Amino acid sequence: LSQFPQDIGLAFAYGSGVFKQQGTAQGQMGKNMLDFVFAVDDAVTWHTMNLLQNRPHYSVLKLLGPRKISSIQQDHGAGVYYNTLVPVDGRVIKYGVISTESLIEDLMHWKTLYIAGRLHKPVKILTQSDNSKLRAALVGNLKSAVTASFLMLPESFTEEDLFLQIAGLSYAGDFRMVIGEDKSKVVNIVRDNMQHFRILYTNILQDCPQVVYKPQQGKLEVDKSPEGQFVQLMTLPRTLQQRITKMVDPPGKNRDVEEILLQVAQDPDCGAVVQQAISSIVKSSSITQSAKGIATAGLWKTVSYSAKKLVKMWRGWRRKPSVPQVSD
To answer: Which of 24, 47, 74, 299 shows the greatest Cβ crowding within 10 Å of its Cβ?
Structure first.
C-alpha cells in the first residue's frame, strides 16, 4: 500500500494470489496475480495523486486526466476503475478503485453485486477507516448473502452447501463463467477455505433466529414455511427485491412490493425466482464492467489477461475426471 496515495477508506486483497484454492499448488500462489480493491472518499483527488505517483499503471486514458478517469469509474459498469497487469515489488497486481459511497450502496442494496459479491467470500483486509456506515454495510452484505442463500437451499443442508451457495452468488449470470473462467471456480474457492468462511459467517448464523445451526456437526436447518420465506424475502437488498417484483408482476398491474413478495414466498419455485433475479443483476454488471475494462486496461493488457484466464479455464477442464465410456 505504500506505493499508492494514502487516502484509502478500505483496502482489501482477494483471489487465488491471497487464498489457496483447490487444484493450485502452494508454489503457484506466489506466481498468481494479486487482486486489490481500494475504496476512496474522493476519486478525483485520489486519481490525481496516483497519476503523479504511478502514471505508467494507466492505459492511454491517462491522457484524459483525473476528472475524466473518475467519471469513467463512476458512470460506467460497476463503478470500479481497474488498472491491471501492474508490476509492483516483484509481483504482478491488479487494483480496482471505487468510491466509498458507491461501495456502501452496492453492499447495502446489491446495485451491481460486483464488489459486494467479492466481499461475500474471504478477503484480506489491509486497511479500514473508522467509518461506521461502511462497517455496518459490510456486515449487512454478509447477512444478505446468508438470507438469499437460505431461500435457494432445501430445509436441511451442510455448512459446505451454504458456503458453496454464498460463493456462487456473484458468479450466477456472469458471462465470464461461460468463457474465461474455470468452471469449478466456486468449488475451488470453498473447499480449501472452509475455516475462513466459518470465521466470516459463524456469528451471523448463530444470531439468526430462522436457522438452527449445529457447528459441531456442520449442519443447518432453515425455516422453509411461506411465513419464514416471506420474512427472508422482505429483508433482501432493495435491488434484488426490485428485480424479483419486475419478474413476477405482470406489466400494468403495479402491486406493491410486499404483496408480490408474499406471493413469491408461497411459490414452490421461490428459490429459482431469487436465483434468476440475482443472475440478472450479475449479468448486466459483468458485461458492462468487462467492456469498460478493455478501455481502462488497454488492448494489449486485455488480450494478455484474457489469455491467462482461458489457460486457467483449460486447466480446470483438464483436471475434471473423465466419464468412462460404456462399450456395447
So the answer is: 47
Q: Which of 77, 90, 72, 93 lies closest to 12 in space, CA to CA?
A: 93
pLDDT, tens digit (0-9, with 9 covering 90-100), for 185-231? 899 899 999 999 999 999 999 999 999 999 999 999 999 999 999 99
Determine contact, residues 222/215, Cβ cutoff 8 Å. Answer: no
- Distance, in Å, from the CA atom of 248 to the CA atom of 85, rounded to the nearest integer, reads 43
> Which H or E run includes 14?
strand 10-14
Given a contact cutoff of 8 angstroms between Cβ atoms, the answer to whether 76 and 98 are in contact is: no
- DSSP annotation string for 261-305: HHHHHT-TTHHHHHHHHHHHHHHHHHHHHHHHHHHHH-HHHHHHH
Q: What is the pLDDT of residue 183?
A: 55
117 pLDDT more than 90: yes
Q: Which of 127-131, 274-278, 281-285 shows the lowest per-residue confidence on average (mean pLDDT)?
A: 281-285
- Which residue pairs, CB below 8 angstroms and at least 24 apart, start in 256-261? 258/234, 261/230, 261/233, 261/234
What is the spatial distance between Cα 249 and Cα 158, in angstroms, rounded to a whole number? 34
DSSP H helical ranges for the chain: 26-29, 43-54, 66-75, 100-109, 114-118, 132-152, 159-168, 185-191, 194-207, 226-234, 238-248, 257-265, 270-297, 299-319
Spatial CA neighbour of 139 closest among 120, 126, 153, 123: 120
> In whole angstroms, what is the distance from residue 186 CA to residue 320 CA?
14
Residue showing cell 464488489:
115
**Which amino acid makes up residue 37?**
V
Please tell me the pTM assigned to this model.
0.86
